[in-house]
Design a protein that fits this description.
Elements (H helix, E strand, L loop, with lengths): L1 E4 L1 H9 L3 H12 L1 E5 H14 L4 H14 L1 E3 L14 H10 L4 E3 L3 H4 L9 E2 L1 H12 L1
Parallel strand pairs: 1-2, 1-4, 2-3, 4-5
Helix pairs in contact: 1-2, 1-3, 3-4
Length: 135
């Protein structure tokens, strides 16, 4: 499955042990991770300025994702009216990358429901979906 991981999932996967870390590990092992240039740029900013990770560590994470994931460059934007316009490039890149699901903790994206062009799940819902499919 092609899984688009949003910035908040990647930050949590890198910075803490827990569900997001587990989601990322299973995606690396059994699925194809898709990330967009928008997410990579935001990830770099958050890891560097908010978490204050050393530049070498931030670069290492960027390089790792570029090697292991399908990276979608900015492309045509979806024409949608979203509460947070900064979510449009993320959603557009997920669609352009052929993602089958977008995993995020972003409430605005999660609340799109059936109006979204692809399934949008929280890390917990995605984990539960994987567990139910494995049975």
């Amino acid at each position: 499955m092609r899984v688009f991981l949003d910035t908040n999932v990647l930050v949590s996967a890198v910075s803490t042990r827990g569900l997001c870390s587990d989601v990322m590990q299973i995606c690396l092992a059994e699925h194809q991770i898709v990330v967009g240039q928008t997410v990579l740029e935001e990830l770099e900013r958050v890891l560097g300025s908010k978490l204050r990770l050393p530049p070498a560590t931030v670069e290492e994470m960027d390089s790792f994702l570029r090697r292991r994931a399908v990276v979608i460059e900015a492309g045509p934007l979806l024409t949608m009216d979203l509460p947070d316009p900064t979510d449009i490039p993320v959603l557009s890149e997920a669609c352009a990358g052929g993602a089958e699901v977008l995993v995020t903790g972003d409430r605005d994206l999660l609340e799109l429901g059936s109006d979204a062009p692809l399934p949008i799940l929280s890390p917990r819902d995605f984990w539960e979906r994987l567990r139910s499919e494995a049975r």
